[in-house]
Amino acid sequence: MRELVYSLILLCCCLSLSSCQKAFVGDEEKEETRNENGVKLQLCITKLGDADFEKSYQVLRSTDVTTLCNRVSVAVYQNGTRVKQINQTTSDQNFGKIQLTLPAGKYKLLVLAYSGSKSATMTDVEKVTFSGGMSDTFWYCKDIDLQADTSEDITMKRIVAMFRLSLTDAIPSNVKTLKFAYTGGSSTLNGVTGLGCVNSRQSEDFTITSDMVGKTHDFDIYTFPKPESQTLKITVTALDGNGNQIIQHLFEGVEIQCNMITKYTGAFFSGVGSGSNASYSGRLLTDDEWGQTDTTF
Length: 297
Prior knowledge:
It comes from Hallella mizrahii. This protein has one helix at 2-18; strands at residues 39-48, 71-78, 81-89, 97-102, 105-114, 138-146, 150-158, 161-167, 177-183, 189-190, 195-196, 201-207, 218-223, 231-239, 245-255, 260-266, 280-286, 292-296. It is mainly beta.
């Protein structure tokens, strides 16, 4: 009798475990491979609409996503709740091509292309965070009424502003880190509007490698512009191997705009040991035929 009871308990446990299923693909999981019943939605990122910042300031309106980003994340929401998320990296065979299976209904679709060490956290469509670091980021958001199998090519929009510090003097050998600390932008994205939505204190540290010493160099940082703020306050500090400050410069009122580069060019290290001031010229660049505004400081 006791053996029969034990057998029944074991059978109930097995049935309970077999009935568990995942509701959505989590933040750190790869694209789903299981078969599901429902309506199929196929997405293909055909181009990044405003790429790229570079290329001799010429417009490239059909840049492949794999050339600028190493991650793609797709999230689907219904009535404000995320019901599915799929993440891809460049190691995935069909990077930039996504297939989802959903019950028929109305949804909000959010697609992000970016680079980083981790996938974006997209639990809340109005507060998307990037713990893997800020990068060049592209966005697509749309309300869909999914009633039949659908295939759609999408063009994504750049939603970040870039600040570039372009050094005209050589990096000294005792500099081991260049630290950027800045406010005025946002590291959190409102996925519905494509704009920044919090007052962030952002930072970015660049390790100075041996091949950078004795040469000039460019350093790029990114932020999501906010509707109420179009300027950054940026502190750039050069540190030695023990974390001691060598020289520091403060840039205030730095104008930014979505899909534009604010470039500051100058001799950053010319004041080291002499007390003299470095001079900078700044310009605002956009990739719509790269119109620019030049400012001298």
